Each structure stands twice: as structure tokens, then as C-alpha cells.
Amino acid sequence: MGGAAADQPGSAREAPWPDPADRERVLERLIGVRSSKPSFYAAWREKSARLDRTIETLERISAALCVTPEGPAALCEAVVEAAGHHFRARWAAMTFADGLLAHELPPVIVHSGGRVGRAWDEAPRVLQPLAARALTSRRPVVAAAGDGHDPKAGCNEPGGAVAVPMLLRDELAGTLAVGLPADTQVEESDLSILLTLANHAGLALHNAWTFQESERLRERAEGASRAAERHATDLERRSGQLERARRRLEDAGRRQLLGQERNRIARELHDSVAQHLLSIGMMLEWCRKQEPPSSPILERLLTSKELARSALAQIRGVIYELSSVEQPADLPATLDELVEELRHTTDLEIALQTRGSPCALPRAAEHALSQIAREALFNVARHAEASRAWVAVHYGERSISLSVGDDGRGDPERLQRKLERAAHGGSNYHRGLADIAERARELAARVRFAPRRGGGVRFELTAPLEPPWSDGPGG
């Protein structure tokens, strides 16, 4: 009995464990999970990790497809980065075929090691033949590692590579490819994700291109609208200018007609009335020379001659006003006409000289100076018994000088006294000198008679260039 009792503990320690089936049932009762495979837990963990990565990839893909407003290039880079992240790829790339997108993008975009390349020489050598196979077959293409003997697949990299076609409205737009890490198995779900990403990328690229093109067209339309507004404003401005020009032309036409009529009247007065008055004065002068100093007719002849001279001066003033309304003042030309006229109506030999730089004068000033020169020359021709006379005009910086000299027998001191008395308004003094004094006062000018070197008398006038001249003819 004792021996039997002693044998029982030993026999209990040496009893075998239940069979494996019993152990699985015991495990099932302990954890509440039934497994048909010993490797279920490892597979489940791998599936769970892959699912988590897929969900994260979908989030990245969604974010990548939302880059449309930034343009096609930014969208491509985002899609390539999302594909590389899902496969934990050594590189990811997108290639483009000739078609809708080729003119907007580089031939290839490669994302590798944090860098982005845009040329074939920056891409893996396997990419170009792999992309060509995917485009030709229009299906996903998988190149396993070590297939370098196949020149079409040509993958001498540590891992394989996958490429899927990218379609856009049933047309091949390019491919999306990834370089797999070593010891990576490609499942159908991975190919489906890559193919779906490629198809959505093609559509998103087209949308991005369309959006970019619409933005470009919108900017062009806005630019055209702004240009049209500028053209409209410019057209309105030019229309206003044309209207003002039309009114100016009409005014100029009316002024031209008025000026032509004024000139016609001035020519008529000059050719008829003025010439007749000049002839009357010359005939009266001839008659005066024929009468003896004691003749009672002499005083009447002198009065008639003075009246004719005054009428001629008034007619000349009217002619000047009529003919110079639209013409700028030109004193040298006016004096030249005066000298030419007196050469034909008197026996004087007259010389005209202009010094300095002639400048434009107001009409009133030009007329006053020409009338003063006329009166001075008439006095020389009438009283000085001279054969020659000299007229000189000098334009200074701030003043203008007029001088009339002769080689006659006049007395400058006597003439100066007569001029001073005439300036005070004495009616019994020479009317010509009174006119000279009056016009000189209008010009704020200094006048004097002085002896001329070589004999004769020299009349001198100096007037400022910018006095408060009146706009009338000055008598």
C-alpha cells in the first residue's frame, strides 16, 4: 500500500499533456477566440497595419486631390508623394504621354529621398521602360526585383516596381509608378489603390488645367475689360477734343472770313483814299512852294495840307487796325514798308537798320512806334531840306530804341523846345510833334532831338519793352 502510494506521485508527474487539439480547445475557452490557423494573430496584425496605412493613404490622396487651385504641377507632386507614402516606396513618379496634359507639365516628375526631379536623367532607369509597358498594355505592370535580364522590364534594383496607366476620358495621359522596398509583396488591394489614385489624378489634373486655363481666361477678360474701359475713356476724351477742334475750326473759319473782308477794305482804303490824300498833300506842298511868303493864300495852303496830313494819318490808323487784327506785330517789316513808300513819294534817300534780336511787341506798341517814325520822316522831308535820312531800330534786353537822322539844316535845340511845348498840349504848335509826344507818352518813352555827327538832326526815342501799353492804336 505504501509502495502503491509512493508510486502514485511519480506516475502523476510523468503523465503526458493533452494532445494539441485539446490544447486549442483549452486556449479557446481561456481567450474566447476560435482560430483555424496557428498564424492568425500575426496575419491579423499585418492586415490591421495595412488597413491603417490604407486609411492614412486615402487621407493623403484626398488632400492631394484638393490641390487643384494651385495648378497641375503642385497637384502632381502631391499625388506622387501620396503614392510613395502608401507603398513606403524608395521612389515614386508620374510620367506624361503626348496629349491633353503634355504641354503644361514636364515629361516626368520623380519624388525620391525628399527631392523632386523633373527630367528623365533624374529618374530611375527602370521607370521609362516600365511606363512604356503600362501605356502599351493599358494595365498595371509589376516588375520584380532581379529581372534585369529582361530589357523591357529591366529591374536591377533591390525591390520591385509597379506602374499603372493614368487615363483621362479613355485617353492615355501618362503613368503612375512606385519603386517598392526590398522583400515587399504587392497585393491586389495595393494595385487597386494605385490604379484608383492614377485615374483620379488624371481627372484632377484635367480639372486643375481647366481651372488654371479659366483663371487665365478670366484674367485676360478682366484685362480686356479694363482696356475697353480705358479705350472708352480715351474715346470720350478724344471725342471731346474733336468737338473742341470742330468749334475752333468754325471760329477760325469765321475769323478768316472776317479777316479777309477786313483786308479787302484795308486794301481799298490804301489803294484809293490814302493815295488820294497823299497826292493832295503833295500838290498842296507844291502850291505852297510857288507862293511868296507874303501871299494871303499861303496860310490856307498850310492849313489844308495839315488837314490832309491828319486825314491821311487817321486813314493809315484805320488801315492798320483792319489789316493787323489777325497778324502778329512786326515792327521791322512795317518800317520797311514805310521806307519803301517814302522813297517813291519824296526825294529822300532813306536807309533802314535793325540791330539786336527782334521780339514780338503788342500791336498798340508796334503801331505807335511806326507812326512816330512816319511823323519824324515826314518832318525831315517837309522841313529839313535834307537829301538823306537814316532809320535805326535797336532791340535791347529791356528796352527798344528808335532813331531817325538826317543831313538837313534843322536846329535840334529849336525842335526840342517845340516838342516840349507840344507835349503840354499847346494847340498852336506843330501837330506832327504833338502826335509824337502823345504816342511817346503812351509808350512811357523818352524822346529828344540832338545834333547828328556829320551834320543834321537826330531824333531819338527809348521805350521799355514791357510798359503798361494800351491795346489801342494810339490815335
Model description:
The chain is of the alpha+beta class and 475 residues long. Among the domains are: 172 residues, GAF domain (Beta-Lactamase, 2-Layer Sandwich), CATH 3.30.450.40; 148 residues, Heat Shock Protein 90 (2-Layer Sandwich), CATH 3.30.565. It has eleven helices and eleven strands. It has a six-stranded antiparallel β-sheet, sandwiched between helices. Strands 7-8-9-11-10 form a five-stranded mixed β-sheet. Helix 3 runs antiparallel to helix 4 and helix 8 packs parallel to helix 9. It is rod-shaped. 29% of the residues are buried. The N terminus and C terminus are likely disordered.
What are the defining features of this structure?
single chain; 475 residues; alpha+beta; Beta-Lactamase; Heat Shock Protein 90; six-stranded antiparallel beta sheet; five-stranded mixed beta sheet; 11 helices; 56% helix; disordered N terminus
Short recap of the structure:
By secondary structure, this protein is of the alpha+beta class.
* Number of DSSP E strands: 11
In DSSP terms, counting alpha (H) and pi (I) runs of 4 or more, how many helices?
11
The biggest beta sheet, please?
6 strands, antiparallel
Residue runs with pLDDT of under 50 for 5 or more positions: 1-15, 148-154, 470-475
Question: What percentage of amino acids are in beta strands?
Answer: 5-15%
CATH architecture of the domain at 41-212: 2-Layer Sandwich
Radius of gyration over C-alpha positions, nearest whole angstrom: 60 Å
CATH class of the domain at 41-212: Alpha Beta
Record the strand order, biggest sheet: 3-2-1-6-5-4
Structural class: alpha+beta
Q: In whole angstroms, how far apart are the ends?
A: 178 Å
SSE topology string: HHHHEEEHEEEHHHEHEEHHEE
